[in-house]
Amino acid sequence: MHLKHAFFVSLCLLFVLLLSGCSTPVQMPDANTPAIVLKEAQTRGLTVAGTITVPAGVYAPDFEADNAIYYRAPTHLVSKALGITSLMRGGIVIPNPFTEKEKADIEAEKSKPKRDPTIINHNFASMPKPVRDLRQGVWYDQQEGSGGLLIYAATSPKRIFHVEEPFNFEVQTNHIP
Fold first, then answer.
1. Backbone torsion region of residue 83, taken as left when φ is above 0, otherwise alpha when ψ lies between -120 and 50, otherwise beta
2. 8-state DSSP, 158
3. Is residue 2 in a domain?
4. Residue 165 and residue 42: Cα distance in Å, rounded?
5. pLDDT per residue over 35-59, tens digit each?
6. How many CB atoms lie within 10 A of CB 16?
7. In the chain, how many domains are there?
8. What letter does residue 138 receive in the DSSP assignment?
């Protein structure tokens, strides 16, 4: 019986380690990253389904990941989908603009001859590389939920729910690091 228990615990730990190791790096934003300000609450349609309402107020930069800055909302977000209304912690995601290298890569890709869609080519290296998504979105802080260690490892606050229309915000100019 003791051997079965040890095997089960080992299997669970392996599963948690595998789940937690499958993510891109998250880092603290630069100390000079200013906050953004929404003068009024804004409701946007989500590209998946439903709507999100973000509150007015100051959004502090919380972390950076995937070439974007994740700003934390001053209060809860209101999510409405499939007839269900939920209050969520989280914030707004503002992607970083394209770097000069990314701009050059996009221009180089445009100048390449278009491939004939009737020709099947199994050489994936020759396929065009996807362009980074610059749509704004929202993120939900599921790390604060109560679900135990497994749920903590399996969820990521970096999941972006893109909005159909950008948010209207101002960059806070009196930012003091």
1. left
2. T
3. no
4. 10
5. 999 999 999 998 888 999 999 999 9
6. 15
7. 1
8. E
In contact, 129 and 109? CB cutoff 8 Å = yes
Degrees to nearest 5, angle at CA 69 with 88 and 39: 65
How far apart, in whole angstroms, are the C-alpha atoms of residue 44 and residue 37? 17
Residue 20 belongs to a domain: no
Q: Is 166 exposed, middle or buried (0-12, 13-18, 19+ CB in 10 A)?
A: middle
Domain coverage including residue 142? 26-171
Eight-state DSSP code of residue 23:
S
DSSP state string for 59-114: EEEEEEETTEEEEEPSS-EEEEETTEEEEE-EEEEEEPPPPHHHHHHHHHHHHSPP
In a domain, 58, yes or no: yes
> pLDDT band at residue 132, thresholds of 50, 70 and 90?
confident
- The pTM for the full model equals 0.69
Q: Around 57, how many Cα atoms within 13 Å sit in the side-chain half-sphere?
A: 14
Helix %, strand %, coil % of the chain (to 5): 25, 30, 45
Q: Which amino acid does the sequence have at 10?
A: S
